[in-house]
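Q: What does the assembled structure look like for these inputs?
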Amino acid sequence: MNVLPKWVDIILIPLINLLLALIVAGIVVIFIGENPVEAMRLLIVGALGSSYGIGFTLFYATSFVFTGLAVAVAFHASLFNIGGEGQAGIAGLGVAIVALNLDHTHWLLVFPLAIIAAALFGAAWAAIPAYLQAKRGSHIVITTIMFNYIASALLIYLLVNQLKVEGAMAPETRRFAEGAHLPFMHEMMGWIGLSMTKTPMNISFIWALMCCVGVWLLIWRTRLGYEIRAFGQSEPAARYAGISPTKIIMIAMLISGALAGMMALNVVVGGFSQKLVNDPIQGAGFVGIAVALMGRSHPVGVLLAAILFGVLYQGGAELAFEMPSISREMILVIQALVILFTGALENMVRGPVTRLFLSLRRGAI
Amino acid sequence: MSDTNTAGRAQSAPAIELKGISKAFGPVQANKDISLHVAKGAIHGIVGENGAGKSTLMSILYGFYKSDAGEIYINGDLTPIPDSQAAIKAGIGMVHQHFKLVENFTVLENVVLGAEDGAMLKPSLAKARDVLTTLAHEYELDVDPDAVIEDLSVGHQQRVEILKALYRQADILILDEPTGVLTPAEADHLFRILGNLKAEGKTIILITHKLREIMAITDSVSVMRRGEMTATKPTSQTNAQELAELMVGRQVLLQVDKKPASPGAALLRVENLSVRDELGVEKLRNVSFEVRAGEILGVAGVAGNGQSELLEIISGISPADSGKVLINGDAIDIGKTANPNMRRHRGIAHVPEDRHRMGLVMSNMAWENTFLGYQDDPAFEGSFGFMRRENIIEDAKQKIERFDIRPPNPRLKAENFSGGNQQKIVLAREIERNPDVLLVGQPTRGVDIGAIEFIHKQIVALRDAGKAILLVSVELDEILSLSDRVIVMFDGAVAGERDATKTNNKELGMLMAGMAGEAA
Amino acid sequence: MDLATILQLFDSSLRLATPLLFACLAGLFSERAGIFDIGLEGKILASAFAAGAFAAVTGSAMLGLCAGLVASIMMSLIHGLASITFQGNQIISGVAINFLASGLTALIGQNWFHQGGQTPPLSGSGRFQSLTWPLAEKLNSLPVIGPIYKELISGHNILVYVALLCVPVTWWVLFRTRFGLRLRAVGENPGAVDTAGISVTRLRYQAVIICGILCGLAGVYLSTAMAAGFGREMSAGRGFIALAALIFAKWKPVPALFTCLLFGFLEAVAIRYQSIDLGFGTVPVQFMQALPYILTVVILAGFVGKAIPPKAGGRPYVKER
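A:
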């Protein structure tokens, strides 16, 4: 039985957890011999202090919204999709295939086709673990981990043997022509007469916001969402209600894989690189886990948490530049601490907070 | 056990004395200032409804939970019991309702677990083998020491639990609802064992909600209600009626007011239904019966004799291997493609046995539970797969009002309602559809007495409206007071059929034990 | 292929299997006790860094080993705190530990040594040296047996032999001792252990610490025996291959040995040959690298013998009410 008011559950506890993560991160900074308050200031200014910083922050956040939503949708079906990394990587392949073939046309054609390709490729990579979970009971956490490594090997193989530019050393595709470049945010601002610093933030961000709305509608307003939640909370109740576990596992994982796949849009045809490189995902699939945990699997929470991690990534890069003794990997440390405190150690804070509220309530009576 | 100095005092002192035990789980006060004496060498019964706090109290005595307040005296000595290790040292053994056995271990391994002699296993196992042989002779506790637990019957698994306690030289044995999963024959055997143990001077505490058992084998009895101990009496100075009243706190209406049935055509017919589980064990064997319009057919039996499978197959949750189910004379799909939704469209409603796992999604709000299973109803589902929330919530409000569900808040989570009100949500959902056939499993399990009456009345009203009702319950009294006809399930088959007005507890009990010959 | 090549291949298989074996047995202790651990990778990495760093500073491989064990056990204790004491999600905790190790090793490595996250190269007593067995040189002239003795049996560092020795020791502990009985019981039904008067918490912490020690040895091996110093992300997914091996071996010590040798062999082949010509086509090196994962998925799918994990695995123990 949950005795906590809703605001405590969705705002206070995540904030306390975040604070704890930052305190421990601060201790790490002190250990390195720097001033944590100054580091924090540099990080926030680097991420939010200029339109340049904000653009980069939201560029990173775009990726994290997609991978966060992917994990969140699977969470609602009580599935732990830890394979966002592989699904997004394979989706990158799909997006690259569209871009390589159609970059002589126009982004208005490439964008929708790239979305479809990303969704299909991402979903396809989630389909096998989903099927094995649904039909054979194979633990989806383990299979999706395995599929991350298989995806990475497949991607390297294809880049080296099929997609690499003849004679080049780096295992990556050629740079796409103009027709495959998604519009940058500064370009779009230009269309309506506003100016913004040039950053890799692009139209994918708007698509990410639309996906947030879409996921919210799906989970809380449709029958399918109702069935996904019923299954996620009680499989026997779902079977009783005529909801097929196989169907829900498959659909939830396909949607999850497709959402993870969308992340490839942002980094393959959205950002500055404009080509498929080795390891295009750079851990964003795993960040999605942290984002979904912090965001309590709710699209609004996911959006906020994704922006938080965007701040962390962009600010962390700036911080590493300003304070050379703090390298970029500080981001990973903070990320790990956030996952640890909001996810694994959640009860450490929840227990005392619950007792506090219980005693307050008793006092009131 | 004790030296000569303390022997005299120990003789007179009670084996167990509890003083002022209290325990709360969050906001729930499970035990409230409980005191208890149990004399040495006695069988003491503790009765009470589900959730009265019996198991919690015994778990405290066994060190499984720590009490918030109170003292425990064993043989007259103040004995703090912070954990199970301390309880075992104090000579207390416990047979839990849900056995605490490692299923892929052998009997021997389970017995020595935690009571090993030394760091190596071999000598421990050898010693245990000898002790087990002795105990088997002494107390009729035969069980193959090398058998793996998951291959043993429930009755044998229970013996392993008793052996575990005796191996640890327990003088005080606590049994929590030991007969719930046993056939009457197995239960009799258990009672013989308990008699043997008593003869050896062991003290036994028997927790149960079955008054007949209390009257049959205990020397003294305590009654618990809502976390409090309401009475302790010698068994010889009380009777079942008085205990029942003490348990529920007011006069019990064991008899349900109902008119004689006037059955019509058969609405539900089951023919030669058979099914095996994934291990190949036969769960249903050629089960046939029919339920007519305006009739309640009771299905009696010890839990686990095929009743659950029967409900799940008829309701379309799981497939059967062979046989037929006919609704209004039409055969319906009972194969792998069977689906509960198809059943609902055919007018079958189902109140499942386990409302916490199956009947409700506990963390969902009440309104979301009032259409579980009916989510494809066009009244609830609009275009593009969107839910019609206004319709659903309005419908939920009406159900809450008609079934007097409290608190009347459709946005409260199901887990925050009491057991009785949760069951009313399920019942409202299923009955309000005006089904032709209603399947009901354990309608009043864990339900307070007020709600029981209400639920029974609803079921009878549906019968009087000309519907067919299949009632599965492990409570014989409930079966007898509600049903018009009764079938008894034993080992997956129908062991017999009786007219409810012309049978009694004893006859049905024999059938439940698989002794059809003696019952006839 | 001549004998020398084959021997070299087997020799490097054994070297590559050693860290897998340590980590696989580490996972075995943890998961047999009901604590799933996808953080093997992070523990290996943390240990490799600590060992590399301390060996570089002190010049002693043994001190490096101690530091590696401490680092790995610390990570284990975080996992224990999350999954035992606070009854958190074991998968999430594992993910966090992997990130934590990845971030901290690079961050602190750069801070201490300013070599892009690497530790200074080790030499002499800073590394675990190969042990040459008696008569290895003399017997080398014997056909077949001589080279096998010299290349395959002799000439490894002490940690390789320790890893191999860990297999029978693990089997013995698990199936012949009181501790092993309790450990297996707590992974199957912690309620049975609790009511038998044994502390589930204590037992699980013990398992988690053993897991830390073994992962620590894997990490120490990587940076102070197999390589001469720590390099960023040098665990390179070995924690996950070990996890795959554990499933492939169905949580049993002796099959774990053979699985790790097989996966080590695959890695050795992938390192030696960029692609393998089978006559009708070539097998790319990436396929060899992915093969352990593919095999594990096949096993998990249950098409070739079902892998059934310990029953209480992954779930925190909460006394039922």
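Residues 121-139 of chain B form the longest helix (19 residues).
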